[in-house]
Amino acid sequence: MASRSAPNCHLRLEWVYGYRGHQCRNNLYYTAAKEIVYFVAGVGVVYSPREHRQKFYRGHSDDIISLALHPDRVLVATGQVGKEPYICVWDSYTVQTISVLKDIHTHGIACLSFDLEGQRLVSVGLDSKNAICVWDWRKGKMLSMAPGHTDRIFDISWDLYQPNKLVSCGVKHIKFWSLCGNSLTPKRGVFGKAGDLQTILCLACARDELTYSGALSGDVYVWKGVNLIRTIQGAHMAGIFSMNACEEGFATGGRDGCIRLWDLTFKPITVIDLRETDQGYKGLSVRSVCWRGDHILVGTQDSEIFEIVVHERNKPFLIMQGHCEGELWALAVHPTKPLAMTGSDDRSVRIWSLIDHALIARCNMEEPIRCAAVSTDGIHLALGMKDGSLTVLRVRDMTEVVHIKDRKEAIHELKYSPDGTFLAVGSNDSSVDIYGVVQRYKKVGECVGSLSFITHLDWSSDSRYLQTNDGSGKRLFYRIPSGKEVSNKEEMKGVQWASWTCVSGLEVNGIWPKYSESNDINSVDGNFIGQVLVTADDYGIIKLFRYPCLRKGAKFKKYIGHSAHITNVRWSHDYQWVISIGGADHSVFQWKFIPERKLKDSLHIAPQESLADSNSDESDSDQSDVPELDSEIEQETQITYHRQVYKEDLPQLKEQCREKHKSATSKRRVQAPGQSIRLHFVHGYRGFDCRSNLFYTQIGEIVYHVAAVGVIYNRQQNTQRFYLGHDDDILCLAIHPLKDYVATGQVGRDPSIHIWDTDTTKPLSILKGYHQYGVCAVDFSADGKRLASVGIDDSHTIVLWDWKKGEKLSVTRGNKDKIFVVKMNPYMPDKLITAGIKHMKFWRRAGGGLIGRKGYIGPQGKSDTMMCAVYGWTEEMAFSGTSTGDVCIWKDVFLIKTVKAHDGPVFSMHALEKGFVTGGKDGVVALWDDSFERCLKTYAIKRASLAPGSKGLLLEDNPSIRAISLGHGHILVGTKNGEILEVDKSGPITLLVQGHMEGDVWGLATHPHLPICATVSDDKTLRIWDLSPSHCMLAVRKLKKGGRCCCFSPDGKALAVGLNDGSFLIVNADTLEDLVSFHHRKDVISDIRFSPGSGKYLAVASYDSFVDIYNVMSSKRVGICKGATSYITHIDWDLRGKLLQVNTGAKEQLFFEAPRGKNQIIPSLEVEKIGWASWTSVLGSCCEGIWPIIGEVTDVTASCLTSDRVVLATGDDFGFVKLFRYPAKGKFGKFKKYVAHSTHVTNVRWTYDDSLLVTVGGPDTSLMVWIYEMEGYRDKRPCDSEESDIESEEDGGYDSDVTRENEITYTIRALSTNIRPMFGVKPHLQQKEPTVDERPPVSRALPQPEKLQTNNVGKKKRPIEDLALELVFGYRGRDCRNNVHYLNDGNDIIYHTASVGILHNVATGSQSFYQEHNDDILCLTVNQHPKFINVVATGQETQQTCQLQLLLYTSGMQLTSKLCLYYDVIIQKEYVLSALVLLENCYFL
To answer: How far apart are CA 102 and CA 811, in angstroms?
Structure first.
């Protein structure tokens, strides 16, 4: 059977023919090395004219449409199209990515420009608002963003003489922008009478506030400030597409095919008409110009690049040319020479030399060309046309041999027979015509079996058979020359094919990805000698497969560069090259084929780093030649952390339910209890799906996590401290290099990462906003300033943070398969590695993105799953542990060696100063030297090695090791079974902490008179725990099935355990040996209870909806309680042992007489009078208040009443432990809430003396012990909150003024644009023509607004009068507060009303105003810091994002300047309700 692995050969891009001249401009420049940089398709090209050599930048995933050159002329910025387009800044020497800017624009990036210093980059998007964005491109950080214009923007440029000014132009507009703080403010250019309002295509800035712009009419408009002052008419005869400023002056290029050079004052120097030169032609249109010294670069609409030497201006040198307009479909290779022929919708056929990398012949046809073929002797070139005609040319001189038109629809495919006798021509008419070559192309046959258009055809080696593919995906065979269809498959079995270009057939079964359409793959070509198949598809990807490719899910190597659909691909005659052509990108790519034998000698052919992995041997199928995953890893990959409802959804859910339950607010509800609980000890460690999450702190304590708790364990005192800031499962933990801070990541819809102090257990930083569903891996940089995190979303997003500032530095998609570990390079903070299912990736930060390279395993290697990774003794060395037990040693991205380390997966690895320590599934800890050449020592985790001081019992020998850490002379080990062990280097092992293994923990019982509890879990173990200060597991017993419930007998000597298969056991409470067992039910035993007193009866509830009552003494079933309509959830005995209370899944509260089980109906008032031996019920009038307002969404799963019947503790599906006063009558009682468990709390129990509350969390596997604190105990703790799900008037109520203000909505009026539209230019910002006799006004107010300049040429109208605001009556006090302040030692008062900030002089009564807001100001504050005197912040209401404006006043009460700051964290609310006082962090630009 054919191999399904990827081929061991490789393609390297050698040359790209073409240049993107259509729909782009200003995209061609000289670099500092006198190379030429431009782009075509999705590739940035750096061409050296001296060496005739190209370098390629391939970091883009779609068409590049914009380019800017850095002032140092080494760095280049390129922008692409796409749903999520990004900008790459890259080095033209090394063609490596420097920075990636992403996540802001949509659709595409139309224009780019660097500022004079090269520190900032401005970009324009293709979205509906043509958004303009300013970047600190090195940091990948957006500085400012603003809507550009309602219509398309064609060019943007920084004013090189005014540092914070920009100019943009486009359809019927030009705008002058000021960057103020992080706000971009535009002013429209005033055309006035000096020129007509028209579309501006390009611009260049000059000294003295001058701007030159090229217009659609061919005129050059000259601007002073924002006013058009003169027009240079007739600069070009048609639109000016490009304008380039240089030291010598300006160069312009237009649609008229002319280049004009101008001096620095824009006086003409010379004109070069390219249409009149040797290489010129009619219709030549210039799209890009670059002038450097005596050389001029010119890019044309028709994909040509010319270089002009000024003193030989009539002899331009043609550097590059390519196809233009329409699509490029036709491709053929010469049978004996290194030549390729292409034909396009531009009606040209071109012959390219693959050795010289040049166009050697061109011929223009009368119709668009769709396919081509060269005869076997290389003399004739046949062309299939779009109109259905066929033309044959002589290759030698491109003269016509014959022209035939037998079809009305396009000819899509044609081929000469191997013997040169026939030409087969397939058309969209669904037929193949056979022509006799010797008979001067006379038609000799016709094949008419297809029902759809012909897409591909191939000849047999003996020229007797033809195979075809059509648009419906069918493969048909014909005899030639008769054209008769062959239906007998046996006849075709031994046929050898001269070529293979068909996309359907047994030989190419494996090339088709899952869920693909039959026309996704456009072209195929087989290399029979190298046994390789090359394919081209609609997604712009070239793939290499083994040939034949018989089996589904074949692996491949892929290559990107073309932007959209690749229409054709062919091997050269000697299989040295692969030629591919792009349909819409008009480009021809020449790829060098590197066979397997040469690949071994060329390690430099590692995967080129790129944002889209450009050559990874991956498959669309899950099948592969990689060994099957280990069962533990397979199990882990199946875990889903998605929740139906997340804790983040609670406020929204409460709001939805609030209206429904408004009637409940009228009743006064019982206050929350005065008593409280405090988390004291947690039994458990999360090892079943986490790794490397266990560390020593600075002072030798141990930090780890379980459920939603970060735990700091003191092993000397056997005590714990807790970080309780999380509200869902913690999945990962990393420790700061100084071992004093810890980072933990959790599950959530918008999951958070908390960085907290192990000493104070206070949070230092909380990071949110870039991950989904959860964070599965985190790691600090060596300097501790950065943090890397990986999400569990489908793309496993990787984020690099500056955690102290809470800033995202870089983000990228990680891998489609699960990532297990992220590790930052200790020597290079910008580098990191990730490892996971079948991959190892090496990442480098580039601005706002990360560039990844897959680990290169060599031609013979196989991708293995990596479970752990660390860096070694140099920045290039890395080590990873695999799922097969090997340790891989990497240098840079290359795998150089593998060492067998463990039997089974290597789950954890820790780097030492001189060596490594590893742990695996085999339960062995291994110490290695610094090169993994020698294993120095091994420690097996066995029960026999346990030291006497261990806090529990080891469940099994050699448990799977999930975490390893070294410190304080010991090795710390975490196991999959939830155990934490400390290994002394001399051998003894101490068990420190343990908990249940993976599986839900439901069963919980406390001893009737000792500080002991029992738990039973789905992990098939029954455990006894000591709740006294020793905090250890006293006994454990393995069960045949998982358990759901347990209960001690009243004397504490027996323990009943209900199992998941419907059976139950009674065991000795001390030895856990069986006393008796029963199996009467098929479904889960959900609750089990001994009757009070002597414990004569045992009630056993099951999911079969029955409660069985057994006589313990006689070991017989004496009664069955029937009548429940759903599964039983809780049961309780009364004090006499004569009555049972039962809760069901249908929320029924039922009562049964014991021991017979007769159903009893008892009124609710009577129920309250009954004395109950225990209360674990969640239903009834006594606990109506424990159900939350969102009770339809979540269940209260457990409850337990203190023996003094005062406090009721509950656990629910959200992981909350709550305390209520008992009885909790009335709906929505008030409570105290505690978060530590992650999801549902399955059971809660008070100890015999009520001193402790014990809780278990279902899937989080933890057992938590809480100390009960009586009323009056005062200790402020973060998670002890008195609250309710709903507020009522009686809970304090509001003053009438506060109520009215609370009900004000600021959104409705803001959205009522018909009442007061919020668009246009405010009068005081509108421009007017300056007049000679104007003098600047002297006033405390703003300068008087200028008059609006109009374009009216007709009859004279009265000029628009100016208005200056003089006095404002009013002050906004009705819904604002703290918004009046003294300034200037009490001489002035600052306040606001409407949208105006007012500075009122107390002595004179005069006012000056701040009028930059465009809606109601709602808040105001004054900076009190002496460093920033008279700085005021005001916040306004707005329909979109909030604005905070900063005003600056001088002591003379004059408003001298203002800073408008849209802070980095823009407040995404509809209005601001409080202002910020900016102290040390204020800065002015």
So the answer is: 9
Q: Strands, E, within 872-914: which ranges?
A: 877-882, 886-891, 894-900, 906-912
Token pair 């073309």: residue: 562
Distance from the Cα of residue 919 to its chain's centroid: 32
- CA 930: distance to chain centroid? 36
Residue type at position 16: V
User: In terms of Cα–Cα distance, which of 208, 137, 116, 125 is closest to 168?
Assistant: 125
In the chain (1485 residues long), the average pLDDT of successive 10-residue segments reads 75 93 90 94 94 93 93 95 92 92 91 93 93 92 92 92 91 92 89 89 91 93 92 92 91 92 91 87 91 92 90 86 90 94 93 94 92 93 93 92 91 93 92 91 90 92 92 89 86 88 89 72 91 91 90 85 89 94 90 77 45 41 49 70 69 68 59 91 92 92 94 93 92 94 92 94 92 93 94 92 92 90 92 92 90 82 86 90 92 91 92 90 91 89 86 88 90 93 87 91 94 94 92 92 94 94 93 91 93 91 93 90 92 92 91 89 84 90 84 79 92 90 86 89 93 92 92 53 47 57 54 44 49 41 40 46 84 90 89 93 91 88 85 79 49 40 34 39 35
Say how far apart CA 603 and CA 333 lie, in whole Å: 30
What's the full length of the chain, in residues?
A: 1485
The whole-number pLDDT of residue 1273 equals: 60
DSSP state of 1439: S
Task: State residue 1349's pLDDT score.
Answer: 40
pTM of the complete model: 0.82
Can the peptide bond before residue 1223 be classed as cis, meaning omega within 30 degrees of 0? Answer: yes
The strand ranges marked E within 1136-1279 are 1139-1144, 1149-1153, 1158-1160, 1196-1201, 1207-1212, 1216-1221, 1231-1235, 1241-1246, 1252-1257, 1263-1269
How far, CA to CA in Å, does 394 sit from each of 584, 1274, 1418? 28, 100, 81
Burial 184-218, CB ≥16 within 10 A → b, else e:
bebbebbbbeebeebbbbbbbbbeebbbbbbbbbb
- The answer to whether residues 885 and 866 touch, using CB atoms and an 8 Å cutoff, is no
Q: Is 1035 exposed, middle or buried (0-12, 13-18, 19+ CB in 10 A)?
A: middle
From the number of C-beta atoms within 10 Å of its C-beta (0-12, 13-18, 19+), residue 2 rates as middle
Rounded CA separation 147/184 (Å): 9
Residue pair 1113/1155 in contact by the 8 Å Cβ criterion: no
Report the SS3 class of residue 658: helix
Q: Can you spell out the DSSP letters for 834-877?
A: EEETTEEEEEEEEBTEEEEEE-B--TT-----EEEEEE-SSTTE
Predicted local distance difference test score (pLDDT) of residue 856: 85
Given a contact cutoff of 8 angstroms between Cβ atoms, the answer to whether 480 and 466 are in contact is yes
The backbone torsions φ and ψ at residue 936, rounded to the nearest 5 degrees and listed phi first, read -80, -35
User: CA 78 to CA 318: how far, in whole Å?
Assistant: 24
Q: How far apart are CA 625 and CA 941, in angstroms?
A: 34
CB neighbours (10 Å) of residue 302?
21
- Tokens 């199946």 correspond to what residue? 638
In this structure, what token pair is assigned to residue 553? 């899910």
- DSSP letter for each residue of 1350-1391: ----SS--PPPPP-----------SS--S--EEETTTTEEEE
Radius of gyration of the chain (CA): 39
Tell me the pairing of strands 877-882 and 886-891.
antiparallel
What pLDDT shows up at residue 1083? Answer: 92
Put the strands of the sheet holding 442-447 in their side by side order: 411-416, 422-427, 432-436, 442-447
**Residue 29: how many CB atoms within 10 A of its CB?**
21
Instruction: Name 790's Cβ contacts closer than 8 Å, sequence gap at least 6.
Output: 775, 776, 777, 778, 796, 797, 798, 814, 819, 822, 834
Residue 497: HSE in the Cβ half-sphere, 13 Å Cα cutoff: 21
Q: Is the dihedral of CA 229, 234, 238, 241 positive or negative?
A: negative
